[in-house]
Amino acid sequence: MMLKGFQFSAVEAAIKKPGRKDLALIFSEAPATAAAVFTTNAVKAAPVLLSAERIAGGKAQALVVNSGNANACTGAQGMLDAQKTSQILAAGLGIAEELVQISSTGVIGVPLPMDRLTAAIPALVAGCGSAGIDDLAAAIMTTDTFPKVAQRSGSAGGVSYTVAGVAKGAGMIMPNMATMLSFVLTDAAIDPALIDRIFRSSVDRSFNAITIDGDTSTNDTCLLMANGAAGTPVIAAGTPEAEQFAGLLDEVLLDLAKLIVKDGEGATKFVEIRISGAESDADAKRAAMAVANSSLVKTAFFGQDANWGRIFAAVGYSGAKVNPDLLALWFDDVCMAKSGIFSGGDAEARGTEVLRKKEFSVQVDLGLGQGSATVYTSDLSHEYVSINADYRT
Amino acid sequence: MMLKGFQFSAVEAAIKKPGRKDLALIFSEAPATAAAVFTTNAVKAAPVLLSAERIAGGKAQALVVNSGNANACTGAQGMLDAQKTSQILAAGLGIAEELVQISSTGVIGVPLPMDRLTAAIPALVAGCGSAGIDDLAAAIMTTDTFPKVAQRSGSAGGVSYTVAGVAKGAGMIMPNMATMLSFVLTDAAIDPALIDRIFRSSVDRSFNAITIDGDTSTNDTCLLMANGAAGTPVIAAGTPEAEQFAGLLDEVLLDLAKLIVKDGEGATKFVEIRISGAESDADAKRAAMAVANSSLVKTAFFGQDANWGRIFAAVGYSGAKVNPDLLALWFDDVCMAKSGIFSGGDAEARGTEVLRKKEFSVQVDLGLGQGSATVYTSDLSHEYVSINADYRT
C-alpha cells in the first residue's frame, strides 16, 4: 500500500463487549480536502449531525470511528458525547476540533459507554501509525463477516497516487444510504471545487445502487479525504486527470459496494439487476430497486427458484411505466420470458441452472425506451432472519 | 348462516396438484348489484382485466375462482383461457357471460391447465348449493393455513340481512392491494349509486391497511355482491341504513384483513402499528407502512427484541415529516422512548415482556400534528423464508 501521509490506529474500547478492536482512527499528517455524504434518514445520529456541520468547511484531518454503538436516538447527551469524544481526540492529536470527523455504528438508542471510550483514546492516539488500513476495516465491522478494502493507483503530472477505501455493511443497505460506513483516502491533491461533486456522483453509482433489505439507517457516512501527500499537482475540474481520478474513485467505491452486498446479512447469492428499455433512467432505477428489495424475489433467489413471475410482479408495482406485453427477462443469458410470457422450451431448466450459481444477473427489458439502471442485491435467507432477530442479544 | 339467495360449490380440478378442492363458485339466484377493487400492479392477470371490464356494468351474478395458478403473465392465451372458463360456466348456469366474475391465485407465468379446468366445470355447476361458505373459503387458499370467513347481521326497513365474506392471503400482502382475494356477499339491497363508493372506502380502511412483506400482486381482487334476497328496501346514500351497512361492511372487511395478517406467511406475531401526531393522515400512513414493512423491525418482532431504535429509523426514512427530538414510542402501554430518547428505568424489561405476547401494539407519536393511521402487520420469521423459497416446488 503506497498511500502517503495517512496513519491508522485501532484499539479495543469494549464499546459493546470486549474481545475485539472497536475504536479506530484515521489521521492525515496535513489537513485534507474532504467531502462527505450522509444518511437521508430524518432521524440522524449525533455523530452524523456533528460531522455534517464540520464537513461544510471542506476540510478534515482525522476521523474517529467506533463500532458496537450507533449513538443514535440518544438526544442531547448523544451530541455531548460525540463532541467530547472529538474534543479529547483533537487535543491528543494537537489539531483543531473542526478537523475531526466522527462516525459510529451499532445498536440504536443506547448511550455511548463514555468512560470506556474516553479511557481508550490515549492509546488510540499513541498507536497512530501502528495499524494498517486492514485494521481500520476490521475495527468498523459489526455483523460483517470480513473486512472490506479496495484500492487503485493513478498518476497526475507524472506523479503516482493511490485511492484506497474501507467500508462496512452489512444489513440496512439501501440507497441514500444505509448502515454503511465508508472512508476513502487519496494522497492525490484534489481541487476543493471539484471534490464534493465528483464524490457524490461516484456514491450515486455505487453505494446508492446496492440494497440488502430496503432499510436506510441513521448513521450512514461516506467520507473522502484527499491530502495531496503524494505530491501531485492539484487535480482540477475539466482535465483528463480529473476524469482519471473520477474513474478510479468509481472503481474503488463500486468494489466496496459489491463487497458489502456479497457480505449482506445471511447472503448466499450476489445478484446484479439490470433494467433496460425504460422510459427514463429514473424509471429504470425504480424498477430495479423494486426487484432488488422484494422479499418474494429474494426468497426465490435463496430457494434457487427461477420464479421470473415474481420479478415481473415487482416491476409492475415499482411505479415505473410498464407495458406487460413488452416485458422480457433473462437470468444471465437465458431468456425466461419474452413479450410478457414464458419463453418455453428448456428455459426453466436452464434458468434454474443459472440460479444455482453464487453470482448471476437478472435483466429485464421494459421495451419502452432508452432508460437503464443497474443495482446489486443479495438473497433473503434464513440466516438474515437469525442475525436480525438476535442482533441485540 | 342466514345469507339468502347465494349458492356455493367447490370441486377438485387439480389445478396445481390433486388432493384438494381448488375450484369454487358463488352463484346469486338473481343478478346482484356489484362493486370490485382490483390490484394497482401494472402487470395485471387476465382474470383481473376481464373482471374489471365487466364490473363496470355494476352487475354480477356468479364468480368462479381457482387456486394454484394465477393466470398472470400468460399473454393472449391467458385472456382466451379466462374467457373460455367464464363462457362455459355462463352456459352451464344459463346466465349472461358479462355477469360472470373470474378470479385466479397461485403461481405466475404458467398457463392454466384448461383441460382439467374445463373438465371440472360441469361438476362445479351441478354442485351449486351443495357447498357452504366455509368450503368456498377453503377452496381459495394457497399458502393460507386456515380458511377466513367473517359475517355480521343488520336490518333495514324492519328486515334482517347478512353481510358475509371470505378472504385468502397470505404472502404478498400490501395495500393497493396484494395476493389477496376477498368476496363479500350481502342479501341486503344496495343502491347501485352507493355501492362502489362505500366499498372502496371500506377496503381502504381494511385491506389497504395491512402488509406482510410490501409486495403487491398481479391478481388482487375484492368483490362485493348485493342481491337483495333478504327483501330489504333499497339502502340509499345519506340514510341511517346506509351508515349501518357501511359499519357492518367495515367490520367484516377488517375481520378478514386481520385474519390475513394473523395467517401471514410464517407469522408468529400480530402487530398493530399506530402512528399519531403526524402532520397529516397521509404522513401517518406513510410512517406506519414504513415500520410495518421494515425487514429489520419485523425480524426484531420475531426475535422478541424491544428494538425501538429500528422503529424510529423506519419512521425517519418513511418520507413523513419527522422531528427526531419529539418522537415517543410505546409497546402496548409501556413507554419505551420519549423526546426521541430511551425512557430508562425498567422500560427495556417491560417492553420485552410485551413483545413476548402473540399480539401487541406499537404506537409512535410524532408530536407534530393531528394526523393518525393504523396498520396491521406480522413479524418476519424463518418460516416466511422457507415458504417463499420453496413455493413453486
Can you tell me about this structure?
- Two copies of one chain form a homodimer.
- Chain A is an alpha/beta fold and 393 residues long.
- Chain A folds into two domains: 6-260, L-amino peptidase D-ALA esterase/amidase (4-Layer Sandwich), CATH 3.60.70; 270-389, ArgJ beta chain, C-terminal domain (Ubiquitin-like (UB roll)).
- Helix content of chain A is 34%, strand content 29%.
- Chain A is built from eleven helices and 17 strands.
- Chain A has helices spanning 46-55, 75-93, 114-126, 133-139, 192-205, 240-262, 281-293, 295-302, 308-317, 347-355, 382-389; strands at residues 6-11, 23-38, 59-69, 100-107, 148-156, 159-168, 181-186, 189-190, 210-211, 221-226, 234-235, 270-278, 328-331, 334-338, 341-342, 359-365, 371-378.
- In chain A, strands 1, 2, 3, 4, 5, 6, 7 and 10 form an eight-stranded mixed sheet that branches.
- In chain A, strand 13 (328-331) and strand 14 (334-338) form a beta hairpin.
- The longest helix of chain A has 23 residues, at 240-262.
Summary, kept brief:
2 copies of one chain form a homodimer. The first copy, chain A, has 2 domains: 6-260, L-amino peptidase D-ALA esterase/amidase (4-Layer Sandwich), CATH 3.60.70.12; 270-389, Roll (Ubiquitin-like (UB roll)). Chain A contains 11 helices and 17 strands.
